[in-house]
Amino acid sequence: MLEPRYRRILLKLSGEAFAGAGGQVDVDTTTLMAEQIAQVHADGVSVGVVVGGGNIWRGKPHEAAGMERATADYMGMLATLINALALQDALEQLGVPTRVQTAVQINKLAESYIRRRAIRHLEKKRVVIFAGGTGNPYFTTDTAAALRAVEIEAEVVLKATKVDGVYNADPKKDKKAVKYDRLTFMDSIKQRLKVMDTTALTLCMENRMPVVVFDLAVKGNIARAVAGQKVGTLITTE
Prior knowledge:
alpha/beta; 11 strands; globular; Carbamate kinase
């Protein structure tokens, strides 16, 4: 068992993380994510999760075809709720008490997001899954993750990806791409490294909220990141 360094975390899961190789919401992949979350929850860590919806809906192609940006973004918010419900089911099958809160009100499926209620759930040792992004168009789920992390007084944002950290170029396209073990938010912004969008990075920087970018596919990486081990890339204010 790894000793947690952080006692309250915000985990950001992209929509693509749910897809795996089995489709839009892959059961086995979702279960594996839930098992990793359950592991750190069992160690006494408070866990908030922000989910994306890119496995179900990507607005950019539709915007390019003429769809209004706000409409495309609202549809993406609905997609995040599907992923949130899938993750909730997987966690509860493992015996982990869970609540879904959504920034877009759909009362029959999830609670509306209320900051103080979310914190209370965490205090009662429930995993809280945040859906619906920020509830506003023109903002990404990365920005939602930064915002929720600050609001629930998390100690770190853990951004789970398909690569093992942040590189100076796309490692899938450039074999000479160099991985960073540590970065500052300002360097990430200046170099346009596409770690998170600029709004999310700025929000984390201004609130001194560290971000760890790591490979979710490696089993146990969430627990290692929570323990403060060298996993992926650490982004800090200084």
